[in-house]
């Protein structure tokens, strides 16, 4: 797939009625997805926005010329004119919303994490399966041009059998730490890296996890249980050893990288450079960094919704599934358990958490 | 400006009626612009496509759900429902079409080159001025994120006074040489580089040109006057010495680069890498190249139409003008003259060509 | 220090008698050091080579015009004309040879690892201290220009407090696995990375280690206990979390990299490129890899002996000490223990091993 | 050849008597070469230093333990104990010294430019031929690892037929402009680039030159004829078009790059980075620049003397010849002529200058 997904597949959509999409959650990520649905995808229209916060849905809907703004999410789900929904609410509400949307017969795109317990993940998966609706989860690296090209090369055998992997996420700055739930670094940040490691080690599954974490950005929040820096080592069932690493604050920008080393070679992904401009001056060589996820993953964010809406229209299976979300969540929960117990945790010992 | 121009300015457009755009020329570049007008720009709609080739406008219009397809370009110009036009026909037709569109009261975006003689360039500029319509020319580097960032740094004084500049364009492969007009490498390819050098040396104007060119890709076409490889040296009135370089065939891909060196430092622009993926294998380190202008300049192509349509809506001056097109053309014509005479050519000695 | 250490300090040496050096161990690394002593260091001469293997010392001495070749190492140590020795024998012989050399009054440069048990490390350190001779250990990264520059920037505060570190070593190919002792990946390969992590996190010491390792290059040697792939996570007493990673076989070349991320920024070190040549062809962009440690660390290998011999001449303390060697060894032994027990190991729980 | 030439060929030299070298000119470059001869090359010794400046030869000889220091260069040439000489005096003295040394039967290594007129170049070439001594000229790029690897790939056919070439030299800062002879930028700086372009376009010779130059760094010296910024376009007899570019002052450091583009691909050479360290901070990504030719070309400077002395010992032809020096000089003189006349100059029209 090209990085410019929106350019393709437009032929069919021009004659079919546009897909009517509902957006749930009008926050920062929701607003991006709303703009994508309203403006960037041919054959798709933003039919409704819902957000319980007073005025939030209305403001976004007005901006985008969307006809319907709701504070009651259930009314969006029960609207028969809506074909599919995008859920971009806080993480802990995802699973219930997936279940409700699926039961209402809507195809569901849910931001990561789909759930924060395995029981909830199973409920969401079951609900979609029982309703016969498509379910896709927002693992954006899978739609980034570099990571996608890496996977294509892995599938073509370029690295042989993966032996050592690495994925890292460093956010550019720490928002108000008082508002961040306790295990967020595993459940919401590293969940990307856990999925990336599975994506870059296709067919293999994790068997054991060892995690270390600490409050290094804001040590004053350590006592409240907020961890902002973490390293997780994962052993996969094909022998590969992987490291996932995250920090809530990189002063230089937004840093997402991946690496796969195997019997046949190595692939590296990720580049914090903002543009191809390089400057040379009395202080040396310099370049600007990306500081914003919606810059680094702009095209990936569009591509994942393009792929989801295309799946809905064509009836095919989604490329990122509820099962993928559950598998990444299991690594996150094992990491939490490893931090709590101070030792390695086997994935098969994980109870429903 | 962000590389993702389409994300901005959408607030106003949601309430205003969309800008009705006409596309003239349904070829490769025209089709890209048509998709941009139809799908990528909020507040803009593609109202008509015109192309004299039988079926060409119709196929593109159908693909994009555009209501009107014409083989008669004048009918598009005379349609009172059209606010502005994009001209993407063969180079030698541009000036006449700009004049006709302007006289019909349409704002005009014209692909480069706007004209192939100074007299035609003047006619086009005059027509737009007399009609009071906006005129913008398709110098895409000016909308590329890296080149824009370079200009911003130049304006901020980062390179001091420019002393040495370079701009190059190498196309990935040579189309049918029999169909390429004689001086195309100067008038259609290097025209980009001439504009880029002016863009990177703001306020300065060229005074002297020395060009060398040859038929190295297809020496069998040398006798017919087709030059496929060229180097042009330009002296500017601020003393800066610049080199523009082009080839019709780079086997590795599409290569566009710029460099400004001055009293305060150097900036380099351009990167032929396709993604941030790097591969390491028994044969060393490798990465993929961009091979297609619509990949390398995808965002720039969208950004220039976004900026043009925004200019039309807001009534402000366009950022790239007919005068810019004329100034780049003058360098191209001086280069032709230099090749013909085998010596340097002063810009002020150029007669209307 | 410049990368070209041998250019400096030559003024004094021209008038003083040259430092007489003895080389113990005429293998691959010993031969490199012998050439450095004989040819690359002003004010230094190679006075004797000793190696128990018949003919090995003789061949090397003859090549380099060295007057004395011995199979009896003790005779080299007891030669009063030798000022200092370089020990480049197999790892398990190092500690005893350091002790013997020190007791003979020779300043000692010993290849890593200085010892494979803490008791041996302590014996070596004690022997040097009691004899009042200098002792330096061969951690070459500390003399590589990029790693040195990184440390200088860390000391200048450029990364603030280190929070996340990484060091990796991947050897280009696996020699005869039957000849590799069981824990070599920790004791001889990762020992470099353990030292590097201490070097890049100055003043901090490790408190806890969690290691995972496997036989992925040669799974057929897993039963004999040979581990060829390993990841070690280390918690330091300043909170920093570090990862050390090694493989015995990277098909693309010799790969050594480092990374320090902290409250103030990030530094990355290491580049597998062989030269600054980049090639562009129909298959994309490519460059050659370094495949040989004596290419990648050529200048560092010379610089460490230059610094050692300068220490000996000037009487100052060595820059890399026996205590540094012991500290890195402790991490290696903790890693072995972690692999054996399948859980994290605290450094303070390590008994003399 | 490896970048570390001194590691090779040492076997033979250990038994042969060392080659006795004389160094003429104890300035900055002479001092570097003296250290190479005294300390970096096995089988070579620095037997004498000569410099007419009082005390200069003595200070350098003392530093390096060289037995003989002279102010009379002829006495060095007439010393029968000297096998070969290195000439590192001011450019305008080179040709006469080559002639004198050759007539004295010494093999000669001469810094670039070997001569500043074609007649002088011919005299030097003739003198060496008549004396049957070897003559090598100091074009250091030919011994740089990246440029050498480029040439190897060109010889292997990787770029097909060269079509567009570029070579540039930018010095880090302008020394006292009052002491720089008028045409230095062509005769002493760009002479490197002219040779590099011939090196990268093997077998081809220049046919036509068009030069532009100006005093942009120090416009106050324009009236005295000092040009500090220049661009030269060269047409070769295989059709290739080349650009050579120089500036006397790059505030960011020492910048030397090359590029060859041909029918089969492109090679780029040159990297102003000092080490492989990259820094990331609140101001973006940064790296240090090389600011000193003796850092950038340290290994090349050693390699060229290693190759020369090896040529002398083995009796083989030198790899860089007097004819190479003459050919580069011809381009320089044609450039001077082009600047003077304001037009293109054909090489075959060049009279002895």
Task: Reconstruct the topology from this structure.
The structure is a homotetramer of 353-residue chains.
Chain A: H1 10-15, E1 19-24, H2 28-40, E2 44-50, H3 56-64, E3 68-70, H4 73-77, E4 84-87, H5 94-103, E5 107-111, H6 118-131, E6 135-138, H7 145-155, E7 162-170, H8 184-200, E8 206-214, E9 229-236, E10 241-247, E11 255-262, E12 265-269, E13 278-281, E14 284-287, H9 293-296, H10 298-314, H11 322-341, E15 345-346
Parallel strand pairs in A: 1-2, 1-4, 2-3, 4-5, 5-6, 7-10
Antiparallel strand pairs in A: 7-11, 8-9, 8-15, 9-10, 11-12, 13-14
Number of strands of chain A: 15
Termini distance of chain A?
37 Å
Mean pLDDT of chain A: 94
Oligomer: homotetramer
Sequence stretches where pLDDT stays below 50 over 5 or more residues of chain A: 1-14
Give the radius of gyration of chain A. 20 Å
Keywords (chains A, B, C, D): Oxidoreductase
Domain GFO/IDH/MocA-like oxidoreductase (chains A, B, C, D): 147-267
Protein name (chains A, B, C, D): Gfo/Idh/MocA family oxidoreductase
Domain Gfo/Idh/MocA-like oxidoreductase N-terminal (chains A, B, C, D): 21-139
């Amino acid at each position: 797939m090209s990085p410019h997904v929106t350019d393709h597949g437009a032929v069919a959509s021009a004659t079919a009625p546009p897909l009517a999409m509902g957006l749930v959650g009008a926050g920062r990520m929701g607003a991006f997805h709303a703009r994508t649905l309203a403006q960037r995808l041919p054959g798709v229209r933003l039919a409704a926005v819902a957000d319980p916060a007073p005025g939030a849905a209305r403001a976004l809907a007005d901006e985008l010329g969307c006809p319907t703004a709701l504070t009651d999410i259930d009314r969006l789900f029960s609207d028969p004119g809506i074909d599919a929904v995008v859920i971009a609410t806080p993480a802990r509400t995802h699973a219930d919303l997936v279940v409700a949307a699926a039961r209402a017969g809507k195809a569901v795109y849910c931001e990561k994490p789909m759930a924060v317990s395995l029981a909830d993940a199973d409920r969401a998966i079951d609900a979609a399966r029982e309703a016969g609706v498509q379910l896709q989860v927002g693992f954006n690296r899978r739609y980034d041009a570099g990571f996608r090209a890496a996977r294509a090369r892995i599938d073509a055998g370029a690295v042989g059998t993966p032996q050592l992997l690495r994925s890292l996420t460093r956010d550019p700055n720490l928002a108000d730490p008082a508002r961040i739930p306790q295990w967020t670094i595993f459940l919401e940040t590293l969940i990307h890296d856990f999925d990336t490691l599975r994506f870059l080690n296709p067919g293999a599954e994790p068997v054991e996890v060892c995690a270390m974490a600490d409050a290094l950005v804001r040590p004053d929040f350590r006592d409240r249980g907020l961890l902002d820096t973490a390293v997780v080592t994962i052993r996969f069932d094909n022998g590969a050893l992987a490291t996932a690493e995250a920090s809530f604050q990189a002063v230089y920008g937004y840093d997402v990288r991946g690496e796969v080393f195997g019997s046949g070679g190595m692939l590296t992904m990720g580049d914090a450079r903002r543009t191809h401009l390089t400057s040379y001056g009395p202080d040396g060589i310099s370049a600007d960094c990306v500081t914003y996820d919606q810059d680094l993953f702009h095209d990936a964010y569009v591509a994942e919704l393009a792929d989801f809406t295309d799946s809905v229209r064509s009836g095919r299976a989604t490329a990122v599934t509820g099962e993928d979300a559950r598998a990444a969540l299991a690594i996150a929960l094992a990491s939490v358990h490893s931090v709590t117990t101070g030792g390695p945790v086997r994935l098969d010992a994980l109870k429903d958490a």
